[in-house]
């Protein structure tokens, strides 16, 4: 059965945006915010020479989270009232220590479902200092992530910030309720363009013509 990712994102590039998000969650009467934990994440987005993933509207990446490697693909995102929904599948890559080994691991596998894994090449990367909080709200479990990241694309660097609320367990309607209250209390707007779409647009702008 497909794994579905459901989340909300807020633009956090304005002053004190992370503080506003945390303050907003704490103002929600039914919300319970756990202690934070820090993660260092490096995502490298890939495609084939014939642009298979781009043509099929799939984002494919390898992720290194504090030494733990995995590959993930995500389908086209559907957004309604701020809620983003898409299919997301993850493939663990045990014993992988670096990007070269990750690419070799995938090439040896050749395919994942119907996805080609040979001749993959990096497009851009995101280096993210993430502070993550587990959130309980009326029977739903969510993860709040405060992302302070750098996009590396075409030899350039772009700094951005984003707040993300992802449903881990429970009814999507509960996540909707929580997100609406965070938006109201924080005064922040939902992000119109994700970090990946931003990087993709910069690649199109700065890449080889």
How would you describe this structure to a colleague?
By secondary structure, the chain is α+β, with helices and mostly antiparallel strands. It has one domain (4-206): Hypothetical Protein Pfu-838710-001 (Beta Barrel). 25% of the residues lie in helices and 47% in strands. The protein is built from five helices and twelve strands. It has helices spanning 17-27, 52-55, 99-109, 172-186, 195-206; strands spanning 4-11, 31-33, 37-47, 59-65, 68-74, 78-80, 83-92, 111-112, 115-116, 121-137, 140-153, 156-169. An eight-stranded antiparallel β-barrel has the order 1-7-5-4-3-10-11-12. A two-stranded antiparallel ribbon has the order 8-9. Strand 11 and strand 12 (156-169) form a beta hairpin. Helix 1 crosses helix 4 (172-186). The longest helix is centred in the C-terminal third of the chain and has 15 residues, at 172-186. It is globular, with a radius of gyration of 18 Å. The N and C termini lie far apart (40 Å). The mean pLDDT is 96.
């Amino acid at each position: 059965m497909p794994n579905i990712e459901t989340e909300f994102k807020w633009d956090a590039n304005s002053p004190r945006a992370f503080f506003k998000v945390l303050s907003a969650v704490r103002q929600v009467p039914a919300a319970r915010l756990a202690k934070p934990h820090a993660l260092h994440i490096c995502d490298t987005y890939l495609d084939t020479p014939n642009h298979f993933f781009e043509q099929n509207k799939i984002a494919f990446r390898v992720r290194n989270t504090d030494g733990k490697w995995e590959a993930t693909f995500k389908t086209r995102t559907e957004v309604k009232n701020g809620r983003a929904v898409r299919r997301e599948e993850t493939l663990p890559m045990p014993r992988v220590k670096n990007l070269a080994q990750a690419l070799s691991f995938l090439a040896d596998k050749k395919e994942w479902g119907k996805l080609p894994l040979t001749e993959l090449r990096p497009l851009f990367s995101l280096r993210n200092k993430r502070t993550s909080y587990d959130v309980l709200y009326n029977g739903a479990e969510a993860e709040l992530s405060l992302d302070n990241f750098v996009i590396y694309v075409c030899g350039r660097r772009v700094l951005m910030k984003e707040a993300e609320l992802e449903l881990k367990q429970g009814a999507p309607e509960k996540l909707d309720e929580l997100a609406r209250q965070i938006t109201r209390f924080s005064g922040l707007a939902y992000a119109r363009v994700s970090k990946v779409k931003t990087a993709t647009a910069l690649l199109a702008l700065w890449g080889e013509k």
